[in-house]
Design brief:
Strand 8, helix 9 and strand 9 form a beta-alpha-beta unit. The protein contains twelve helices and eleven strands. Helices cover 36% and strands 14% of the residues. It binds N-(3-carboxypropanoyl)-L-norvaline (SN0). N-(3-carboxypropanoyl)-L-norvaline (SN0) binds next to helix 8.
Length: 316
């Protein structure tokens, strides 16, 4: 693997999941592989799990890790080509990315969407500029439209916890007060549409995702219908794709409670975190026996380790 920006960079998803589970069994087996290799993690947005789990994965592989919160600690970045930089931006991404590429062997980048201009976000302008100019293999730490390390961790979690060969997996929209990216649901849908699962997406009218990511999914506006017999429920808020980045008022009743789980097959409840309690998901579910959110977050290490291992293999 030369880069990890989406499921399309993965030749064999099942093999990658299996590899991640091997790392979980034996975290330090490849300590020599990353010796004298450095990963740089560049954040344009906040992070807890992605930052810490990717660092841990790199350390398990014997790598050095450098982290830059470029939005807070770096020079103000210019992203537009041809800009006359006589305003507040100090350094163009062309130099910034190229220079970072001089210092590290692999680069990770997190860049959220602006949620104002759909075309700009969906063309992955910021992320692709890093890909273009850094000159080293790149791993997505969540881009404007995808979060593949999260989706890989989710796939690992489902593989570990499923009790039948082909489980029913439901992605359900949840309420929120603020417009959130579509990256996590896009990416989860993209991975689940390729997995050996019955995949259903439930959301209120108006929250249709870009169909490039949902091809093959059964989509409904009826949450209770979707939850019938579910083995896994993946809870996530996202803002509308059309009108882009908007929150449609109402739908507070889409927050799951224990009662919503009654029609399921004792479903395991997943969420990528951070989760706003009692807005997106109730205390009783998060603190109850059906929640697997901490287990899922733990798997972020093994997802990152499997990916970094393959990127390191491609360097040598
Ligand atoms: C991000 C998102 O893409 O939804 C990161 C998830 C891994 N989440 C948020 O930005 C949550 C912000 C909030 O205020 O709840």
């Amino acid at each position: 693997m030369k880069q990890f920006t989406s499921v399309h960079d993965v030749t064999d998803i099942n093999a990658l999941v299996a590899e991640a589970l091997q790392h979980k069994q034996n975290p330090y087996a490849n300590q020599q592989l990353g010796k004298n290799k450095t990963i740089g993690l560049v954040f344009l947005n906040p992070s807890l799990r992605t930052r810490m789990s990717t660092q841990k994965a790199a350390l398990n592989l014997g790598m050095n890790v450098m982290v830059l919160n470029i939005d807070k600690e770096g020079w103000a970045l210019e992203l537009q080509d041809g800009a006359v930089m006589n305003g507040t931006t100090v350094e163009h991404v062309r130099e910034a990315a190229a220079v970072l590429g001089q210092y590290v062997d692999i680069i990770g980048v997190r860049s959220f969407p602006g949620l104002k201009d759909r075309e700009e976000d969906y063309s992955e302008q910021v992320f692709n500029k890093f890909v273009e100019y850094c000159g080293v293999p790149i791993v997505s730490l969540e881009s404007a439209t995808r979060h593949p390390l999260q989706s890989l961790a989710d796939s690992i979690t489902i593989e570990e916890l499923k009790t039948k060969a082909r489980p029913k997996v439901v992605l359900t929209w949840a309420p929120h007060i603020k417009p959130l990216p579509q990256a996590v649901p896009n990416s989860f849908a993209e991975w689940m549409c390729k997995a050996d699962v019955d995949f259903v997406i439930a959301h209120p009218e108006g929250y249709e995702l870009n169909t490039d990511f949902t091809d093959g999914a059964f989509i409904t506006h009826n949450q209770q219908e979707a939850l019938q017999g579910a083995d896994f429920i993946y809870v996530k808020n996202w803002s509308a794709y059309e009108p882009y980045g908007k929150v449609i008022k109402g739908h507070d009743d889409w927050m799951l409670t224990n009662e919503s789980l009654q029609a399921t097959n004792n479903a395991k409840v997943m969420h990528c975190l951070p989760v706003r309690r009692n807005l997106e998901l109730s205390d009783e579910i998060l603190d109850g026996p059906n929640s697997v959110v901490i287990h899922e977050a733990g798997n972020r290490v093994w997802a990152a380790q499997a990916v970094l291992k393959q990127l390191l293999d491609s360097l040598s």
